[in-house]
Recover the amino acids of this structure.
């Protein structure tokens, strides 16, 4: 007996095509939203687009994992992971560039872009990744604590704590009252 | 919602609104993954493996076809199954006894008269082949005891796959025939030029298949009665050549004839076995079915009876002593995989013994049966 009644759905080309088409439709429908989420995390449109593209390709290959989870939630979590990886790569790259070329001064375009983003965006980017993720999900994606907890796979108390600390850090950076 | 929360939310949404749909690069279609390639993904390795297998098998088949080792039906069949569980023993009575090779107990008696000049039991133990009166070769179904005359012949030998029967035949018994037991199609080859015009395979000969299922070894011993069987005009032929197998007077050793059973024809050549002379009695010749081109040959007449193992797969035949049998015995038959031997102990009450060959010694010898009626064991097949 055993496995005779089971069938590996991955081997079924018909089901596979339908599911992959579902992934494509999901990303087409939420492309802008996911890129904006990534921009909040990375602060850079080009990096955000690359992150979303990478996530799209990865989920296209790993459709069963996405099928078992909520589609958009899984995509958001994947984008956050991708942003985290991009951040780590950027840190490493920055260290290498500094080591090879010496300390670089920001040019006028970079200063203008920073001014355009605003002080709050810069303060947000200065937060630790976990606090930044929680704040973006809470105040940009309008998710509640439970949803953030499920997406990031951390406890709700941790979410509340991260929100509280993040807001306090932002308030301190911007010189505002937290209340 | 506090002031900082409201500001955070507003600024983040404002920042997001600056990113318009038209600013985005469209999503690129993902590269084809392993799954989306489907069967094509495996096509490359599978095709490579198939090509390797094809080339290997082609080389193998070509090599064996050129050497004439291709057998009809089961060309490269080398025995991998255990020995048949049954040993057939015939004496001068009209009965063949089938013994369990494990216990020695008689498991069946078949009423059929075998008069010497060969006796064979098919490896599947479903049928046996006996040479009856007037050299009539018959196939006997073990289950029913029903006998069916096949031909005039002697020294039957069944191929390892139980499909083909080889036997000596012809007017002067210098031919070897190969019969397909399924279709009844029979092919024959004349060995007159190899055996010698004044000799034959009869009376003192032997025939066996090799483990590859595509070669037969025939051996004849000098027989003074042979010339009486030949027509008068042939009896006056000149003295046979020293290289003729029939007289076994070559200084190069015992002469055996190797018959290659190719799909389309039979062809044969002589092989001289060094250090094996025809001065001893040929007791047994039996193919080693576990390897391709090896057989056992048992002789007696010198101080002790011996069983030698002969390999034909090299440039020259290699003979080495397998085992020496106890005194006053002679070999009767080897197990198809060569690990056991059945021999006859002579004396006032002849008895049939089985022993295991270990190294160059016999161990675990035990008596299978005694011939209290003095019929004598004339034929044993395994």
């Amino acid at each position: 007996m055993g496995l005779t009644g089971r069938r590996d759905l991955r081997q079924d080309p018909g089901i596979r095509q339908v599911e992959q088409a579902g992934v494509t439709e999901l990303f087409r429908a939420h492309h802008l939203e996911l890129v904006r989420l990534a921009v909040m995390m990375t602060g850079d449109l080009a990096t955000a687009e690359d992150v979303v593209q990478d996530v799209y390709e990865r989920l296209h290959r790993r459709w069963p994992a996405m099928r078992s989870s909520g589609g958009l939630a899984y995509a958001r979590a994947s984008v956050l992971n991708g942003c985290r990886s991009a951040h780590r790569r950027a840190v490493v790259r920055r260290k290498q560039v500094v080591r090879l070329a010496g300390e670089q001064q920001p040019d006028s375009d970079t200063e203008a872009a920073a001014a355009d983003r605003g002080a709050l965006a810069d303060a947000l980017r200065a937060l630790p990744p976990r606090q930044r993720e929680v704040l973006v999900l809470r105040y940009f994606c309008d998710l509640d604590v439970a949803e953030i907890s499920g997406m990031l796979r951390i406890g709700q108390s941790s979410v509340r704590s991260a929100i509280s600390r993040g807001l306090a850090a932002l308030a301190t950076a911007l010189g505002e009252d937290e209340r | 919602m506090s002031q900082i929360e409201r500001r955070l939310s507003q600024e983040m949404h404002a920042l997001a609104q600056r990113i318009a749909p038209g600013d985005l690069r469209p999503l690129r279609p993902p590269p084809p993954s392993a799954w989306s390639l489907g069967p094509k993904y495996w096509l490359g390795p599978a095709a490579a493996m198939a090509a390797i297998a094809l080339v290997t098998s082609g080389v193998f088949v070509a090599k064996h076809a050129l050497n004439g080792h291709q057998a009809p039906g089961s060309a490269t069949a080398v025995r991998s199954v255990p020995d048949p569980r049954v040993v057939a023993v015939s004496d001068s009575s009209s009965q063949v006894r089938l013994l369990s090779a494990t216990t020695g107990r008689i498991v069946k008696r078949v009423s059929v008269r075998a008069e010497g000049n060969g006796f064979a039991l098919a490896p599947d133990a479903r049928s046996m082949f006996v040479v009856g009166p007037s050299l009539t070769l018959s196939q006997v179904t073990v289950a029913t005891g029903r006998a069916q005359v096949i031909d005039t012949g002697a020294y039957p030998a069944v191929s390892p796959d139980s499909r083909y029967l080889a036997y000596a035949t012809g007017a002067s018994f210098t031919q070897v025939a190969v019969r397909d037991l399924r279709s009844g199609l029979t092919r024959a080859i004349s060995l007159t030029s190899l055996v010698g015009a004044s000799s034959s395979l009869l009376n003192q000969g032997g025939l066996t298949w090799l483990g590859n299922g595509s070669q037969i070894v025939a051996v004849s011993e000098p027989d003074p009665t042979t010339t009486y069987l030949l027509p008068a005009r042939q009896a006056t032929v000149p003295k046979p050549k020293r290289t003729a197998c029939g007289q076994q007077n070559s200084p190069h050793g015992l002469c055996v004839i190797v018959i290659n059973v190719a799909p389309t024809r039979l062809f044969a050549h002589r092989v001289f076995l060094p250090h094996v002379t025809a001065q001893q009695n040929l007791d047994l010749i039996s193919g080693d079915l576990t390897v391709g081109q090896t057989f056992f040959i048992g002789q007696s007449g010198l101080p002790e009876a011996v069983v030698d193992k002969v390999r034909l797969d090299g440039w020259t035949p290699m003979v080495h002593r397998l085992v020496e049998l106890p005194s006053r015995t002679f070999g009767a038959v080897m197990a198809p995989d060569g690990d056991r031997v059945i021999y006859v102990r002579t004396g006032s009450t002849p008895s049939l013994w089985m022993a295991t060959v270990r190294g160059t010694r016999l161990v675990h010898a035990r008596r299978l049966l005694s011939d209290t009626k003095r019929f004598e064991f004339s034929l044993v097949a395994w």
The two ends of chain B are 98 Å apart (CA to CA).
